[in-house]
Structure formats: C-alpha cells, structure tokens
Amino acid sequence: KMTQQMRDLQLAQARKPPGPSSPNAAKRLYRNLSGKFRVNYTSFDEGSLVGRGEKEKLRKSYLFQSNAALFEAVELQDLDRVQEMLKHYSPEELDLNTPNSEGLLPLDIAIMTNNAPIARALLQAGAKESPHFVSLESRSLHLSTLVREAEQRVNELMAQVVNEAPNADCSEKEKQLKAWEWRFRLYKRMKAGFEHARVPDAPSSVHLSVASSSSLQVTFWEPLSVNSAVVTKYKVEWSCSPTFSPLLGEAVIDKLKDLHFTIEGLVSGTAYHIRVSAYNMKGWGPPQVSMPPFAIPSNWREYDGRAPRRRGQAEALDHLLGQVKTVHQHCICHEPCRNQPQSRKHSVSKSLKHLFHPGSKFLKTLKRGLYLTAIFYKDDNILVTHEDQIPVVEIDDTYSCLLMQDFLWLTKVSCMWDEVLWLRQCVTVSQSSCSCILQTRFKMLLAISQMQGLLGIQDLGQVFFEPIKDKQGNILIVTLKEVKTNQTFESVRWVPICKLQTSRKSVTSPEEPTALDTLLISLQDKLAYHQRSSHALSPGLYLGYLKLCSAVDQIRVLVPEQLPNILCHVKIRSNPNISREEWEWLQKMASVEEPVPTEPETDRSQNPLFQELQVAIKELMTLVNIPLQEAKDFRLYSQEVLDFGDQVSFLLLLPPSDDVCTAPGQNNPYTPRSGFLTLPLQIFELGEER
C-alpha cells in the first residue's frame, strides 16, 4: 500500500487527468505524439468545435498528452526528444512542475537515474524537484514504496499469466506484465541512484566583484566532480565576518541558466565576505569562499565625490527649449518677412508657393543643386513614389555656400523633426553679409516640411553621415528610417529593393553616374550602416581607442563598421562598474606616468583589473593593427570613466599626445585593417546620443 503521505498527494492530484492505464500505454502515447510536437493545439480546425467548452477540453487533453509524453521521454532517457519538447513548448504547456500519479516530477526521474544531460536541460527550462521530498528519509521511503508496489504488481500479473489459460485477456496481461517489469527495473535504478549518490563538492570557483556602491556581484561555477548527483540549486551567503558568524543574509538560486547573483542593499564602504555552496538530492555540500575573499561596495565617483556628468542635463535642455519657445511666441520673426529686400522676398515667396501649391510633388531627375531624399525601408522593401522613384525634393538650385557647416546643422535638426515648423518661423532671413547661410538653412527647413507633407510622416529618420555628390554638380542629402509596422501611405508605396535597383536606368554614362545612381548602387551599404548604428553594446566594461584625424573643415573619428555609433573597442569584463579601489590604482598609475600594462608583472598579478587590462590592450592593438610595442607609449584616460547608462562604461586608451589627432597631410603610420570608418565628430556624437 502507499504511505499516508502519498495518499495525501494522490488526493491533492485528483483534479489532474489520470495517467495512462499502464506504462505500456504511456509508451504508445509517446510514440504516437513523437511526430506531432511542432503542432500547437490552436492549429486544430476550431470551426468544427461546438463551443468554447469543447475547445478548452481539447486544449487540456492535448497538454496532458504532451505532459505524459515528456515523462515517458525522460524515463526512456531520450535526450533529443526532451530537448525538442522544451524548445517548442513552454513550462506551463508541458505542466513541467506538477507531479504525476507516483508523486514524481520529470526532474526527479532524471536526477535519480543520474542522467545529467537531461537533468541540466530540464533545469535550464525551469524544472523543479518535487516539494514532497522534505527530507532524505521521505525520499528514501517513497522510492522503497514504489519499488515494493511495482514488484507486488509484477508478481500478481505473473501469477495470473501462469494460472490462466491462453486467451485474449491473458495476452493483454502479458503485455501489462512486460510493462510493469520495465517500470520495476526503472524504480530499482532510481532507488540505487539515490542510495549511491553523495552530497556535491564545493563550487569549483567563486568570483566576487563590486557591482555598485551598494551591491556586489557573485559569479560561480559548478563543482568539478562528476561522481555525485546533479546539482539542482546553489546558496549564496554573506557576512561582515570571515567566520560567517553572524550571517547577514543568504539567497538560494534555483534558476541555473546563469550562475551569478547580485547582492543588493549593502552598505557602501563596508567589507563583505561571500561563500557559495551547492545542493543535490543528498543535501548541501561544503561552501566555497569567494576570490577575492571579500569586497567593498563602491564606485569610482566616490574617489573625489564627482557627480554624474549628465545628471539633470536632459531636463535642463527641455527647460531651456521651453524658455526659447516662450520668448519667440510673439517675436516679429513669426510675421511675414515684410522687411526683406524685394529680391529676397520674391525668392522666399516663390519657395512658399512651391511648397503649398497643389501641384507640389517629388522630383524625378536632378538638375544641379542641393536635394533631400528620404529612405524608408522595411525588411527588403523600400518606399517609392507612384513613378517608382525614391522620394526627392529640392532644397536649393543655386547652392554655393560651404556645405559641411550647413550639413552638420541639418543633422542636428534631425533630432527634432517635430519642431521643423517652429524652427522655420524662427529662422529669419538676415540682411547682413552672412544671409547666405541663413537663406540656405531656411530652404532646408522648407524642403523638410515639403517632404513631411508629401509623405505624411513627421519623423524622417537619421541623416546619413555624408552627402552624395556627382560630377554634374548635384548634392544629395540622405535620411534613413526603418519602418517596424505595416503602414500604408497615400503618395508612396512599397516595392522590393532589388526590383528598384534593376529597373533604374541611368540617364548618364556609366563613367559619370548621377547622385541618384550612386545612391541606388550603394543603397544596401547605407541600410546596413543605419541598422548597425542602432545596435547597443551588451552590459560590461569596455576599453575604447580614441583616434582622430582633422581636415580643413572638420574633425573625424575612427569607428568600427559593425558598430559605427561606438569607438573602436574590446570588452574588458561583463561588470561595468569601476570600484573606488580600482580607480585609485588607475590614478596612481597615471600620476607616476607609468606605461599601459602590456606585459605581466609578478607584484601585480593579484590585481584582477590589471590582468583584464593586459588582455584587453593586446586584443585592441591587434584589432586596430598597431604593433604591441607601440602601446607602451599609449595612455589610459584617467579623468573619468565614460558611463553610457547604468550597464555600459568605457575606459579610453589614448595614443601619445602628438598622435591623438592626425593633421591634414600627415601620414598615419598604422592603417587599420578593413572594417573601419572615419565619421565627422558631430555625426558620431549624435549617433552616440541616439
């Protein structure tokens, strides 16, 4: 008979559908379902169901079958099938943590048969051990009961098969006998696995790092021993005493996808000792003390009490913009430009009439001037006009001013597309000698408004980092925006990019392509640049390389093609925080003008940051094609750590002072390998802000 504990368990499980009538029936069910795991229950023809009640019955029946098939796959030690089910079904759909009629969970069976691969797969999916095994004695008693009852059932069926004459009932009993013999062997194997198991060894390694001024991060690795049962959870303990008496706190980690834990709510400046122990079905193993043995929650800013650079900046800028708008509300610049000379007034009036005239439309060809084009794309499709042309509007047909200044000004306007109308009202045409610049910028705002009106879209996206020029005197400024949802527009439509590129016929010779031809030829590269510009770094501390080069009208910065909104970089570690102690070490190294660490030194081998920097510098020098011996003259920027939010921070590696910025005409002795760009500094700053 079942123990009283299992009687109570069976009553608690009465609401769950009964299992297969025999182990053999479960096997048949498992085989029947093996080819159907990719079919969700919602794929049934719901039109054939009478009502919601029948749909729910079908859903529950299907989920129960999946649950039974998972148990059978674990019992048969079919790792591939277990992984397939865990991939295509959620833990809730598989009923992963509800015991079966024997009081067992899939994870119980896996760990007691010592099937480590299946046990780890189940743990990754969130599987738990049965809560009914409150002690070693209760687990041992339950396994003994299962073995005894299975043996009793085998003996009963064997007696019936021997004593009864051959008939249909006898044949069915023989099948049941074979199934129960198999289950008897399974329970015996589980019982033997439990009896021979021992508590786990200590975690093989425990690493402690400072996560912030009030938290520590603990990272640990599973025990090296393969002779004990599978570890199912870990315990992290912390104390101010190296003897761990008294304990200040502990946490049990049973989600084993990532073996790390952050202890929060600690006191800054206080030393905390950490240890971690592992657990399996035999109990808790010995603890492993962290390395280093203690850590003090802190942040590099505590070194000199420095406030975050960007604290309150966004709010201050919003307040300033509000003040400017208030001042300009009743400004004369909102009135028609009545005080302008007649020629200027006529020019602006002509532009305004062109903007609001019913016949205002996109251009088909370029006729020597400055133009704006907007690229909207979704997957492999692009927005074009009804004439299958990329949307283009004219900015100025007599453009003669310095382009880079106006172009960089337009990139800043791209940060506030919704304010273009207000900006247009505020940019008045001056009568001074500098009016050419204001005229051009006013025309830029007019062109932006025209593009927004024709497309019916305010946000034109991100300005590409350089305009396209051709030998015919055309200059094309390109904006790029990815459309995430299925939208329809009145004056444009979606077409495949490949179709547009194929159908485009150049009106000039191949040797002298127009700016539009160049745009179509390089369109894929520009879309790739735009997508990469929006990628974010994973959390961590990075080492960045700052290299500039100057020209007559701009300074450019070296960036990787794969992530053009970030400096050339390598990852130092996953923890973005620099502790006060680490920052003090960096300050000391900078104060004595020591070279950056490229070679190991025995007296610093215990400094984790020193070792991490050595590895990172070697990797970074290889990346940018600079001989490692040259790095001895490089410096770490010691004024601050560059924080990008709470999860990403940078240390900067600088060349010698004379080489930080390459002057015009100066040869750079070390040319980076392919895969790098030089962006205008203002464009890079805008990309980093995005």
TrEMBL record:
PROSITE patterns: FN3 (PS50853)
Domain of life per record: Eukaryota
Annotated ranges, domain Fibronectin type-III: 202-299
GO biological process: establishment of mitotic spindle orientation; regulation of establishment of bipolar cell polarity
Region of interest: Disordered: 1-25
Pfam families: fn3 (PF00041)
GO-annotated cellular components: spindle
Name the record gives this protein: ANKF1 protein
Organism the protein comes from: Leptocoma aspasia
